[in-house]
UniProtKB/TrEMBL annotation:
Name the record gives this protein: Damage-control phosphatase ARMT1-like metal-binding domain-containing protein
Family: Belongs to the damage-control phosphatase family. Sugar phosphate phosphatase III subfamily.
Key words of the record: Hydrolase, Manganese, Metal-binding
Gene3D superfamilies hit by this protein: Uncharacterised protein PF01937, DUF89, domain 3 (3.40.50.10880)
Database matches in SUPFAM superfamilies: AF1104-like
Pfam family for this entry, one: ARMT1-like_dom
Gene source species: Saccharopolyspora hordei
Keyword presence, Metal-binding: yes
Cofactor(s) essential for the protein: Mn(2+)
Presence of the UniProt keyword Chloroplast in the record: no
BP term (GO), one: DNA damage response
Annotated catalysed reactions: beta-D-fructose 6-phosphate = dihydroxyacetone + D-glyceraldehyde 3-phosphate; beta-D-fructose 1-phosphate + H2O = D-fructose + phosphate
Domain of life: Bacteria
GO molecular function, one term: metal ion binding
Length: 380
C-alpha cells in the first residue's frame, strides 16, 4: 500500500513551514535583489496570500508552456492550496512566481531570472571558492581516493550553504545515512551514456561538472547528458544559463578547476557532453509520470544519476514512507539503473536500515541538511 501523500495543510509541518515561512522570506529576497515595481510586488504579495490562505488560481499568462501547465494543473485549480500535495503545490508556486515577476511577458523583466543574483553570489562565495580550490588536490590522489572525493563533492555540494571536503578527510561523510562511494561506482560497469540530472547551480553544479569530467576521464562513460531546468526554479536550480556561468567561472580559475572547465568545454564542443532542459524537469509530478521521450532516454542510459532532494522526492514519491521501505521497490518504476546523491532536506526517505533509523533519534535529521545518502538500484 502507498504511504500517505505529503500535503501543505498541516500547520507546523515541514511543508506548511515552506509555504508560511520560507516563501515570504524568499519573496523578500527576490524583491531586494531586483528593482521590481509596485505591480510586480503586489502580484507577489497576492501569490503569497493565495498560496497560504486561498484557492489555486489558474495561470493568466501567455507563456509557451501554458498548455502543458494547464494539463499538469488539471484538477487542482479551484482547490484550497492547503489540500494540495506538497510536490505539486511547490512547483506550481514557482511557476506562478515567474509569471508574477514578468518572466514570460514582453517588457523589462522578460526572461530575467529573479534568482540570478543569489546564484551569482553563491558562485563567488567563500564556500564555493574553497571548494573549487580543493579540486587542486584531485590529481595527487590515488584512483580510489579520487573516486571517493569526487562523489563526496557531488553529494555534499547539495548542501547548498556548506563547503564540502574534497580531500580524503572524513568530515564530509560523517552524516551519510546510507551508501558509499564504492556502492555508487559499482553501478558503472563499462562505458555507455550516463545521464546526470543536476540540481542546484553554482557550487553544486561545479562539483557535478567535476563528476562529469571524472566519468569521462575514467571511461565510466563515453558520453554524459547533463539535464537542467528549462526555467528558473526552486531558487537555485540550474538552468542552461547557469551551466554556462559556472563553466566560464571555472575557465577563469587556475589549477584543476580550470582544467576541469577546459575539458568540459571541449566535451561540449565534440558532443561527449550534452546539456538538455526537458520541460518535465519543472513538472509538478513525480518521475512515474515522466513522458515517453524522457523514459526512453533514461532507458538507454548506462546509469542515471539524480542529484538533490527534490529529484529524490520525485523519484521515490513525495510520501510519508517508513524510512525502512526498500529503495529498490520505491524506484522499480525507473526505466534503468539509477543512483541518488542527496542531502536530506525534506521528510521523505526510504532505504535505511532499522539500526540506522534507531540511531538517528527524532526527525530533525530528515530536514536539517546535516545528513546525506547515496542509494543505487540495482544495489551493490
Ligand atoms: O535543492 P534540493 O536539494 O532539491 O532541495 C530543495 C528542497 O528544498 C525545499 O524546497 C524546501 O526545503 C524542498 O521542498 C526541496 O525538496
Amino acid at each position: 500500500m502507498e504511504a500517505p501523500q505529503i500535503t501543505i495543510g498541516e500547520p507546523g509541518s515541514f511543508a506548511w513551514k515552506v509555504f508560511h515561512e520560507r516563501h515570504p522570506a524568499m519573496v523578500d529576497q527576490v524583491c531586494a535583489a531586483t528593482p521590481y515595481g509596485p505591480e510586480v510586488r503586489s502580484r507577489l504579495a497576492g501569490l503569497l496570500r493565495e498560496s497560504t490562505a486561498g484557492v489555486v488560481a489558474p495561470l493568466d499568462d501567455e507563456a509557451p508552456d501554458r498548455e502543458r501547465w494547464a494539463a499538469w494543473a488539471d484538477g487542482q485549480v479551484g482547490r484550497p492550496w492547503r489540500e494540495c500535495a506538497f510536490l505539486w503545490a511547490e512547483s506550481y508556486f514557482f511557476r506562478r512566481l515567474l509569471a508574477a515577476v514578468g518572466y514570460f511577458t514582453p517588457g523589462a523583466w522578460w526572461g530575467v531570472d529573479p534568482f540570478a543574483p543569489m546564484k551569482t553570489a553563491e558562485l563567488h562565495s567563500a564556500a564555493t571558492t574553497a571548494t573549487l580550490q580543493a579540486f587542486d588536490a584531485l590529481p595527487e590522489l590515488s584512483a580510489d581516493e579520487r573516486d571517493a572525493a569526487v562523489v563526496r563533492a557531488a553529494v555534499w555540494g547539495n548542501q547548498a550553504d556548506l563547503a564540502f571536503q574534497l580531500s580524503t578527510g572524513v568530515s564530509g561523510t560523517a552524516g551519510l545515512v546510507a551508501g558509499s562511494s564504492r556502492e555508487f561506482w559499482s553501478l558503472f560497469t563499462g562505458g555507455g551514456p550516463v545521464h546526470l540530472v543536476a540540481d542546484n547551480a553554482a557550487g553544486e553544479l561545479a562539483a557535478d561538472l567535476a563528476l562529469v569530467d571524472h566519468l569521462l576521464t575514467t571511461r565510466r562513460a563515453d558520453r554524459v547528458v547533463l539535464h537542467v531546468k528549462p526555467t528558473p526554479y526552486y531558487v537555485s536550480d540550474a538552468t542552461p544559463a547557469d551551466v554556462l556561468a559556472v563553466l566560464r567561472h571555472l575557465l577563469d580559475l587556475p589549477g584543476e578547476a580550470g582544467a576541469i572547465g577546459q575539458r568540459i568545454w571541449a566535451g561540449l564542443r565534440d558532443g561527449r557532453v550534452e546539456v538538455r532542459a526537458h520541460p518535465f524537469f519543472c513538472a509538478p509530478l513525480d518521475y512515474r509520470a515522466m513522458p515517453d521521450d524522457l523514459r526512453q532516454e533514461f532507458a538507454s542510459a548506462a546509469v542515471t544519476v539524480l542529484k538533490g532532494d527534490l529529484n529524490y522526492r520525485r523519484l521515490v514519491g513525495d510520501r510519508y514512507w517508513p524510512a525502512t521501505t526498500p529503495f529498490g521497490g520505491a524506484v522499480s518504476h525507473f526505466p534503468g539503473p539509477v543512483a541518488a546523491l542527496r542531502v536530506l532536506k525534506s521528510e521523505v526517505v526510504v532505504g535505511l536500515d532499522e539500526e540506522t533509523v534507531a540511531g538517528l533519534g527524532d526527525g530533525a535529521w530528515r530536514t536539517s541538511g546535516s545528513h546525506a545518502l547515496i542509494q543505487t538500484n540495482p544495489p551493490a
